[in-house]
Structure formats: structure tokens, C-alpha cells
């Protein structure tokens, strides 16, 4: 069972947020929370809060299941470019330089891993 959480119009550049998102992509939820807690980047507290929101959404959908037993991992994390505010900064000789204040949208999907037992087949001699 999947759970999705979205964070829109975060006032930081998508490049800075992707640095943090790449750290936790594909990791278990408990491991990702530990990484985000001690990462000094500016996007880490925002992603930590988003991950806790996704956990809450998962628990609301699966009321009787325990988070510890579910073996949750981050299935997908996507950082897209958001709205860009364009400003002018005064420059020498009466010119103006454009300042682009970027924002981003983050989408986080968590899912539970199902461990499948594999059955070995003995086809080594039969195939020849």
C-alpha cells in the first residue's frame, strides 16, 4: 500500500533540494529519517517533515498495521521546478541585473517492501 505526500512552492532552488532528495532515494524510512535529522543542508528539515507526513498518510490508510512491521521504503521522490519570481537588482551605470528567486515542488511516495521467496529450479542439465 502506497502513501503520497506533496510539498508545493518551497522557497529554495530545486538543485539544492535535489541534493538532499538524492541522499534518501530508495532508503528505508527509518534510515532516511536518521539521515535527514543530521544533514546540515537547508532542505533537510523540510523533507523530514514531508516524510513524517507521508508516514502519517500511510498509517491513516492502514489503520491496523504497525509501521515497524511494514518494512517501508521511499519508492519515489521527485523534485520539480516551481514558480520563479523575477526581480531586478541595480547594477553599475544605470543597468539592472535580473535576479531569479526559484522555488520547487517535492513529491514523496513511500511503499512497503514485500519479500518474495524464490523457488530454485534445476534446469542446468535439462537445458543442454
Secondary structure tally: strands? 5
For the biggest β-sheet, the strand order reads 1-5-2
Would you tell me which CATH topology applies? Ribosomal Protein L22, Chain A
Structural class: alpha+beta
The Rg value, from CA coordinates, equals: 21 Å
Brief synopsis:
The chain has 128 residues and is of the alpha+beta class. Strands 1-5-2 form a three-stranded antiparallel β-sheet. The chain has a two-stranded antiparallel ribbon with strand order 3-4.
Task: Write up what this structure looks like.
- The chain is of the alpha+beta class.
- It has one domain (2-112): Ribosomal Protein L22, Chain A (Alpha-Beta Complex).
- Helix content is 30%, strand content 30%.
- It contains 3 helices and 5 strands.
- The chain has helices at 14-24, 29-37, 44-61, and strands spanning 3-10, 72-81, 85-90, 96-101, 104-112.
- The strands form 2 sheets. A 3-stranded antiparallel β-sheet has the order 1-5-2. It has a two-stranded antiparallel sheet with strand order 3-4.
- A hairpin with a 5-residue loop joins strand 3 (85-90) and strand 4.
- Helix 2 packs antiparallel against helix 3 (44-61).
- The longest helix has 18 residues, at 44-61.
- The radius of gyration is 21 Å and the shape is elongated.
- The two termini are 43 Å apart.
Question: What features would you highlight for this structure?
Answer:
single chain, 128 residues, alpha+beta, Ribosomal Protein L22, Chain A, 3-stranded antiparallel beta sheet, two-stranded antiparallel ribbon, 3 helices, 30% helix, elongated, Ribosomal_uL22_bac/chlpt-type, rRNA binding
